[in-house]
Structures are given as structure tokens and as C-alpha cells.
Amino acid sequence: MRKFNAVLSMVVLALFLIHAIAGSFQLAGIIPGGSGAMQTVAWIMLGCIIIHVIIGCKLTADTLRACKKSGTSYYKDNKLFWLRRSSGFAIMIFILFHMLIFLGKDENGVYRLNYFGILQLISQILLVVSLAVHVLSNIKPLMIAVGTKSYAKILMDVLFILSFILLLSGIAFVIYYLRWNLV
To answer: pLDDT tens-digit profile of 13-36?
Structure first.
């Protein structure tokens, strides 16, 4: 199950990169929005995320049972474990906000987005931050789980690319906020 979850995580990460780059360009007004392909990628990614969450909950429950059975939890020693779980939970909440904000309405053939104010901006910046914490804290074990032999050589490159795309996403949310509120 762990190996399947690792492969699933790679699929989610690839879909996220596509979604984040295309979405950032759309939010910044560089490319037009309303793409059916973008929505398809988003829905496939959401399905994969739901499966990832279910597997993560099962593995967490197994870990908690093992801790209870052994009588020790080593909570302070397992801060990274809990960071990964709590950042994943935060992502679930912020994905819900993301969907509520960006699932527009089709009014007589015209696609209309919901209002994007300061609270929406804050929620999306928090999504970017929680994604950064979750992905960056999980990338090393993910690379090991999928069998990358010399992960140390490419780890910094992967982290740089992910950080750049997350920064791009954060900037795009700010640009979109400014476009909504200054136009």
C-alpha cells in the first residue's frame, strides 16, 4: 500500500505542477481561462488526492494502533510525522476553499467566477504555504519510496523547481486579487 501511495503521490505532484502552472498563467491574465482541459486535470487530481487521503488515514491509524499497543508514542520524536499529517489536513481544508472560490457558474454560456477578496487571497496563500510544507517535508521519503537511487543529487533541483512553482502560484493569486479589486 505504501508503494502504491508513493506512485499516487507522484501522479498528484505531476498533475499539481500542470494545474499550478496553467492556473497561474490564467490568474495572471497571460492565457485565457475557462479551459475544459484544465478542469479535467483538476478533477482527476482531486480523485487522486481523495485516494491519497484515504490511504494516509489508514496508515496513520495503523501507526496510532502500533503506538497504543507498544505503550509509547514518542510524540516529541515524531514531529516530522505529525507535521506531514497536519499539513495534509490543512491542504484538505484549503482545497475546499479553492474549489469554492474557483468553481464558477455558467450563466447563459458565460463563465463567471466568484468574488475574490482579501479573505479569498489569504486562504489561497495559506494553501500555497501548506502545500509547500507538505510537499517539501515529504519529497525525500517519496523519492526513496519510488526507488530513486541517488536522490541526494536531484533533491535540490526538485526542491528548487517546486519552490519556484509555488512562488509563481502565490504571485498569481496576488495578481488575480489586484485584478479583481482594481478593475
So the answer is: 999 999 999 888 888 878 776 667
pLDDT digits (tens, 9 = 90+) for 89-110: 999 999 999 999 888 766 665 5
Query: Does residue 114 or residue 166 have the better pLDDT?
Result: 166
* 134: CB partners within 8 A, 6+ apart: 84, 87, 88, 90, 91
Angle, in degrees to the nearest 10, between helices 2-27 and 36-70: 140
Q: What is the largest CA-CA distance in the chain?
A: 62
The string of DSSP letters for 59-96 reads HHHHHHHHHHHHT---TGGGHHHHHHHHHHHHHHHHHH
